[in-house]
Amino acid sequence: MKNDSLIFGIRAIIEAITSGKSIDKLFIQKGLHGDLAKELMNLVRKQHITINYVPIEKLNRLTRNNHQGAVAYISPIDFYDLENLVMNVIESGETPLFLILDQLSDVRNFGAIIRTAECTGVHGIIIQKKGGAPVNADSIKTSAGAVFKIPICKVDHIKDAIFYLQGSGIQVVAATEKTSTTIYDTGLTIPTAIIMGSEGKGISQSVLKLVDHQAKLPMYGDIASLNVSVACGVFLYETIRQRR
After folding, report:
1. Residues with Cβ < 8 Å from 14, sequence gap 6 or more?
2. pLDDT digits (tens, 9 = 90+) for 21-54
3. Which of 99, 141, 171, 230 is 20 to 30 A from 119, alpha carbon to alpha carbon?
4. Phi, psi (rounded to 5 degrees) for 43
């Protein structure tokens, strides 16, 4: 199956970056050297693009073509700057509502969350540059095109985003089962950012230490957890209910 978002070869990737394409994922072979490779590295650092250093076997699995030690995925969207987005939302007079995804890895969950976020008026989704699910054909399809309608910000570290949001007067609420407080006992009428964790590990402990509030969904069945996209929908619609 053809993947139009995948490009390979050092020169091709350099041309893509210099022409203004947004790079979603960049894989560089460990130990890659040479003048052209150095040119790519310098350009990538200037553009603040995150590099994933991988063994050559990883690149061979991504493409059977002559990749020259470099493979990238072009993002189908342009990512927003977090500070500019937050400032614009605050200046609009609306009550900010942001969604932070901490290392969410499944593209279908990602797409479903984007769709729900757009439907519930979320002002922006914040993801980390490294480790999360990519914006690709699967996430676009699952989002029903909502990925083109809602701002998505990529940050170097989730923690930095939390500090910035809190400094901007936006409370940060973590969706986690590691608390006795339910979402229904948490005030969401003020400016809020909700954090959803990864499918397997949830929200990292280091991130939990930084939030203003932790909240959970009450569970009455034998299964102890919900799919993250379902849980996210409940949190967002409870926010809407409180703000009506």
Report:
1. 36, 39, 40, 43
2. 888 889 999 999 999 999 999 999 988 888 899 9
3. 171
4. -65, -45
CB atoms within 10 A of CB 225: 12
pLDDT of residue 132: 79
Q: How many residues does this entry show for the chain?
A: 244
CATH homologous superfamily of 6-74: Ribosomal protein L30/S12 (3.30.1330.30)
For residue 150, the one-letter residue type is I
Strands 70-74 and 6-8: antiparallel
Q: Which CATH class is domain 82-243?
A: alpha beta
Rounded Cα distance between 191 and 26, Å, is: 34
Q: Mind listing the pLDDT tens digit for each residue in 173-223?
A: 999 999 999 999 999 999 999 999 988 788 999 999 999 999 999 999 888
Predicted structure pTM score: 0.83
For 212, other C-beta atoms within 10 Å of its C-beta total 15
CA nearest to 216, candidates 231, 236, 233: 231
- What are the start and end residues of each CATH 3.40.1280.10 domain in the chain? 82-243
Six-digit token string for 22: 């947004």
Q: Where in the chain is the domain with CATH 3.30.1330.30?
A: 6-74
